[in-house]
Amino acid sequence: MSVLERIGHPRDLNGLDRDGLLQLCREIREFTVEAVQRTGGHISSSLGATELTVALHRVFESPRDKLVWDTGHQGYVHKILTGRREQFDGLRQFGGISGFLTRTESEHDQFGAGHAGTSISAAHGMAVARELKGEKHHVVAIIGDGALTAGMAFEALNSIGHLRTRVIVVLNDNGMSISPNVGALSRMLDASRIDDLSRPQVAAVSRMVEAVRTARPYRELHRLTEAVLDRLPAGDLAEEAARRILTSLKAILMPNVLFEELGFTYFGPANGHDLFALESVLQKARDFHDGPVFVHVNTQKGHGYGPAEADNQKWHGVSASSSGGAVAPQYTKVFADTVREAMQRDDRVV
Q1: Angle at the Cα of 60 (from 57 to 66), degrees rounded to 5?
Q2: Cα(67)–Cα(74) distance, integer angstroms
Q3: What CATH number does residue 162 fall under?
Q4: Would you say residue 116 lies in a domain?
Q5: Could you tell me which of 173, 74, 168, 82 has the C-alpha nearest to residue 120?
Q6: How many domains does the chain have?
Q7: Residues 262, 153: contact at Cβ < 8 Å?
Q8: For the ranges 17-21, 29-33, 125-129, 130-134, which has the lowest average pLDDT?
Q9: What is the separation, in whole angstroms, between the first and last Cα of the chain?
Q10: Residue 337 domain-assigned?
Q11: What are phi and psi for residue 29, nearest 5 degrees?
Q12: How far apart are CA 328 and CA 88, in angstroms?
């Protein structure tokens, strides 16, 4: 029996040793490629999120803890680990399992969505409901860097940071949506990418700062200092000066100060294909209770499958016939070709 065949529920992951977990990730990728080529579906995003998904299900206790997946393109591994592996022959087929996350399909699917950018808002609502009911579980939103550019996502980040709601946001940053991302946010994230370990100093400094800021003595000293300054003459000025100094140090030492300024405690960037490093950073995020947390994870879209790594736009979504035979043109390609032809005929088309 393969390792994957022994996994029927996320709790089964806890019985695997280090070698078993690494073998599981390999088997998940093999199964995903084979299954999705038969039925069609979104393949590259899930391949890139394999270790992240395994780590999330080992650190958090689904369905008690709420894992809110954005869009659903990265959710196939989640489906495999939550008892639906044997149903993948019917993926996206009539009467079969959905290509997205669906609440009616599994108790582990906390939110159903096909549109990008909704997960953080949904997680915020779940976290507020948890607090109103006096419950203690964790709420985690997993969102890609393409979806993070949605206005709804920024609105939710702003609200969570303002209210200090206890939410964990995990950014699955692969530098892509369907095609490479563009814009100011993408440039900022690109500056801190460590997926090829070409900038290990970024990761090392981030881990050092992270260790200091999340330590209990530091947090207690920070609160004590604020309380003392509040009682001193001209304490407001001293507190503002200290805040500005701290902000300047963050900008120098941390790669993505934006999320700190939004009110989150930032962890990362972490190598999204190092399962055990991911578990470590997610455990720190889980055990940190002083406000919202933002975990930045760098992944490679299509990781572990050569054709998808080489052309992750083509392998973002595949048809059932991708393994051979005739292939119908994609709607996006038909649209692009038609618009290009129109532009060649009429210079008013821009």
Answers
A1: 95
A2: 12
A3: 3.40.50.970
A4: yes
A5: 168
A6: 1
A7: no
A8: 29-33
A9: 58
A10: no
A11: -65, -45
A12: 22
The boundaries of the domain holding residue 33 are 4-212+255-320
Residue pLDDT, tens place only, 202-260: 455 455 555 545 555 545 555 556 666 566 666 566 555 655 555 555 554 455 577 88
pLDDT of residue 57: 98
Per-residue tokens: 243: 């805040």
Report the candidate in 110, 119, 121, 126 with the shortest Cα–Cα distance to residue 146: 119
Q: Which residue has the higher pLDDT, 220 or 151?
A: 151
266 within domain boundaries:
yes
C-alpha pair distances (Å), 83 with each of 5, 86, 267, 279: 10, 8, 31, 22
Q: Is residue 34 part of a domain?
A: yes
Per-position DSSP letters for 190-201, written without gaps between them = HTT--TTSS-HH
pLDDT tens-digit profile of 270-311?
999 999 999 999 999 999 998 999 999 999 888 877 777 776
Integer CA distances (angstroms), 131 to 76, 121, 126, in order: 30, 16, 9
Which residue type, as a one-letter code, is found at position 326?
Answer: A
Is there a contact between 123 and 115 (Cβ–Cβ < 8 Å)? no
| Cα separation, 43 vs 301, whole angstroms | 9
Token pair of 319, please? 């048809």
Q: Which two tokens stand for residue 245?
A: 């100094």
